[in-house]
Amino acid sequence: MSTVGERTPRTDGATPKGRRGRRLWWQLIRIGCAAGRGGPGDRLRFWALFVAAAAAALVALGAVAAVSTYDGRAARNQARGPVFTDRQQDAVALWREGFDTVDEVQHTVIYLQPLKPGAQPPPGLARWPAPGEVMLSPELVREGQQERITSRYGRYAGTIGTSGLVSPSERLAYIRPTQAPDSRADQSWRSVRGFGQSYPMGEVLDSRPLAQVLLTLGLLTGVPALMLLAVAARVGSRARDRRLSLLKALGGARRHRALVTMGEAALPAAAGTALAILPMLAAMSTDVRIPPTGYLLDSSDLRSAWPMTVTALVLSFATTVGVAVLLTRGPRHGTAVAPRPSSSRVPRPRLIGCGLGFGAVAFSQYVMGTPGLVTFAAGTVVMWALLPSVAVEALRALGDKLAARGFRDGRPGQLIGGRWTVAHPGGVVRLAIAMVIGLGLVCQLQVVNSRVGEKAAAARASQAVVGDSVISVQSRDLTPPVIEALSRSLPAGSHVLTLNTDPEQQATLLQGSCRALRLLGLGCPTTPRATTSGDQRVTEIRHWYGPGLRIQAAPSTLRYDRLYGSLIVITSTTGQRADVEKAAYALVPSVNVETLGEGWLVGSGVKFRLNNWLLLFGSLGLALLLLAGSLSAAAEFARVRHTLVPIAVLTGSHHVFRSAARWHLTVPLLMSAVVAVVLTGWHAMFLVAVMQAGSVPWGVLAAAACGCALAAVAVGALGGRAVVRAARPVAVG
User: Is 340 in a helix, a strand, or coil?
Assistant: First the structure.
């Protein structure tokens, strides 16, 4: 029989032990959370984890936006695509496609002719266009204002709804001809029995695969974000080192220290992840245009992907905390908090190898074709791989000069900063290499995609000389009566000529009225003869259609070859293209109106728009690389700030700390930025020489130089402020 106060022994002792374990784990996490609020000594680590978490979450949300956007685009393209049929009795409409350009960007033009009353129009149209009416996408209306797009194809009847566009930035036009076509006479018209299958039209024609977008995002932005996260996780502080040392002294195992670190990283990771939600919420509430691409994100696609968004945020937060736990290192022997001096000399073979890499890059311009590109790539890899060794030696030499000058001029801050650069060049080197390699990757991608080709360059040159005073008009529907009507409807001072490029004839033949030919200085020959005019318009026509261009006065009616012919409209002044297009589309459906070589400019514009995406992802990645290098340099300087505090007693001022930070961080980094920009420009010029195409993106280099300079100033200011804060308790005489 048990007495009062006695307890019956428990046979199951696992439950109290498990509860004690859970209470201990929870207590350790709470200790870490309390320490992670960014108290004295921990602020740099707090903000580093905060920024890294925000960057990781932004990359994850960018991937979510890409996936949801492609899903929405595919669904809308599936809903609007025409379903063709060969059975005339099943057809509800006739369908014909064409293409046109606005500001050198191509868009799809769809001609519709309903056949059955009550048939449903394509998605995005509230009704079928009436004869002679046109419905345009909002983006096409916005971009084509200067070219008077709303009056080009007929009577403007409104915009296409979002359900009929794969994205809000798509350019698309639906037109109903004034006269009903005869599909039996014109085989370019196709019968449609409805809508509801995937079909390549509009923006879909130029879209890149989703895998390629995600790969570009991951390489150019995701990898720098992971590097920033790794650097932030390794940022240390004296307060954190003391906590981990105390836990180790009390017998805490590695898992206990990991729990404290988990709690410490949870608060900045949660705050950074929450900050990344804000741009996503803005994009969910309204369509957002992404600079510098000009692409409009569909907010409805992002709203429908909210489960994926929540999952991405949770995974991003967990990744940030997990990396912080895995990469956090405690102080060695409990007291070693300062980085070890790097006094060993760099092996000479590394310096020689880097020089050989530079030499291979310079020599590649003399090797033609693929071997030249291989030589350039190999030299680049060797140069970038061994460049840190050269940077270390260069920074040590710079530090020696700074220290010597500081000693000679009696500047303690310059002396300390120079000596610290000699002993610890690692932080500055890492940031300098991030500048060189990050900027180099962005600029090389820009150079590769800036290749426009000889034809596109010639088209740009022709446009600069004659503008739109020479316009080509092509269509299989051009007939003598139509050509005559077009001649009468053109603006004053315009003339129509015919061009025949039949390869079986001696050379391209240009025919026109005697009046038109005399205005061009060509006379009025009754038989074909070579051109001798010095008129710039004739020169450009000869450049595009062959140096053996012949001219001849046309008979009473202009002869037009439907297979090899085109019309050439000559205007007295530039700026009349809109009137020419309006006149042509009023007479002929699916007509092609363009300036000389404009098709090549449209093709190069696709590369230019792709370049904008590379610039977006690459600029974000470069910014993250600079941020990672800046945090690494500032953290390395901040870890030894307490060793500099006694200097305040000797100098009588805290100014020496800011001065030392400037000479150790800001000045070397500013010089590194100059070297990085010069080296990148030099490197890009050799790539242009090897490819014999492209151009150096000097604007990108200038913007990057400003960003690198700002990073250098910010790192120096951050390092100086950290030391000053640590020195405040010291009494200065």
Answer: coil
